[in-house]
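Re: your question from the hallway

Yes, I did run it. Sequences:
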Amino acid sequence: MGNAIRWLKQKISQIPIEMSDDDAKVQLNEDIDLFIQEKILYSGKVITQFASGHIQNNSKILTYGHSEVLKKLFKYCAIEENKSFEIYIVDSKPLFEGKKLAKELSSVKNIKCHYNLITSLSSVLERSSIDFCFLGANSMLSNGRLYSRVGTALVAMSSKNKNIPVLVCCESIKFSDKVQLDSVTLNELGDADDMINTKPFNKTGFNLQQYLNKLEAKKLEEQNSTGGKKGQQQQQQSKKEKDDKLLQSSQKNEETLSNWKDYPSLNILNVLYDLTPPEYIQKIITEVGALPPSSVPVILREYKSIT
Amino acid sequence: MSSASHVAAQKLDILVDTFISKLKRRQITGSYKIATETCQFLMRVISTSRWSTPQEFIQLIRKVGQRIQEAQPREFVTGNVVRRVLAIIRDEVNGTGDSLNNANVNNGAPSAPVDTSMFQLLSTVNTSSSTNLAIKENTRGQNDLRSVVIQGIRELSDEISSVNENIEAMTVDLIHENEVLLTPTPGSGTVLNFLLKASLKRKFTVLVTESYPNDIEECHLFAKKLAEANIETVIIPDSTVFAVMSRVGKVLIGARSVFANGGCVSNAGVAAVCECAKEHRTPVFAVAGLYKFSPTYPFDKDSLIEVGNSGKVMPFEDSDLVGKCEVTNPVFDYVIPEHIDIYITNMYVYFFLFINLFFQFIST
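Structure:
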């Protein structure tokens, strides 16, 4: 995104002073549309052309998470080029992006989908003879490292160790001047509460939880304040027991760590991105061609000289 | 006399069949429970069984052992316990072989060591035609052997239950102040104990991976227990392992079974973590009680890995995916010996290249 904004600023600075504001706006809009077409939509198509040569009939592909470019690539190969192949989708908590990809690809006729979690990665690699590993990128850094969804590095490392070629499909707009040496120095944190669920997508929102807590407190107050006859009390007590049991049974599904914030020594780390070293990557496929990870700064130089 | 032995054989069969059914139905799960139950079972088998020579005794126990190993073929602990018991028996028989043979000396049997098979062929012919006196001597010898072996099994059972205490003794030397540890096996009681005891003397941080979907509840309980002991704990998702590995000082795993080549079976995801540690040159420690060490060789890695409920990976709520995708959920993972730096057990500390020396020690 930094690249896009930089490009826009440059475009704005290039507008001649004489042009009126409205004309300038119209021209900028046109330029932005052209930018989107060139750098994002067409790049995707060109990358697909380049990369589809790798996918043959009956090949087995490994991929991690969800990438738009890769989705286009797989759909193109299955539908336009009519190749039938198998895809092993590896997914991880808490985002479960692989499920999105699986939903889209499982309805395509020539593709056989396999879905696994990242803990079963080494079993999958052992059992199935995978031909290629395709990974998507968030950005490519200047020192050849791939900055992508957390877990990509693990997949790339395991594939490399089993001699499976790792290919990254990345538009040139995603190349960055930044240099980073490891995943921990600069990263993004996700929501810690996502980690507490033992089942996916079962979390009650914060407001709902507060409302439920208020309801509970009200109920307890009512039961304490009613004096009444013994019979009534007994009835209420038995009712309360029943309610308690219901609450308990619904709380059993509630997590062990729902009060994790009360423990000062307990922390939850949920980072969103990680860095894959260039040794694990065989080839980066962009719309300007296929290149090794060490050539990223070359593309950046070219890109700067064009605009 | 024969009807009594018949009754005894029936009792034995019932005993063996009940235990095998328990194992097959997974009424006993977990290496520790299985090991202690197997010890109890073998004590009962030995008290009810009848035999005429020590060789027959050994054969009987071997047959029983083979049957119970087949009941849960991926749980190697049953076989290991039976092998240790056989070692105890063979020790006793070798040690008291002379006194048994002296009892047969009036039959002209040579007083040779008992387990030399050629001589044994000759002496069985003689003992089958032995007199009442010899039989009485045999039964007395039998009872002695029985009680000694049962005593040995009791010691073995004590050793198994005291695994945690013995491993604790080594904690202090291995962890230093302000170290960051990573553990991908939160379901292991041994690892938990190790860390709790180490926290009494050292201050460190523990990163715990979630092991979703099979061990996630154990992970949360583990983290809670560590936090209650005031150990700095951080829960990380399984995908973050590579990202944090550069900051980790040591990786601590709990092994489920250890094989003759030094490889081990552990929870799913551990193989990738150990590979990652190898890439970063981070040391990997495996803790396991001695009863988990098996002299079998993992020829077929696929048969070691048990596959669990696919519904945990892709729940039925995702109905549009359920029929269309192949989903597997392997519960275990095989870790190759080169990825583990050291095994910590209740008796010794092992490096995989020297593991065969250890097996010579326990299986003969």
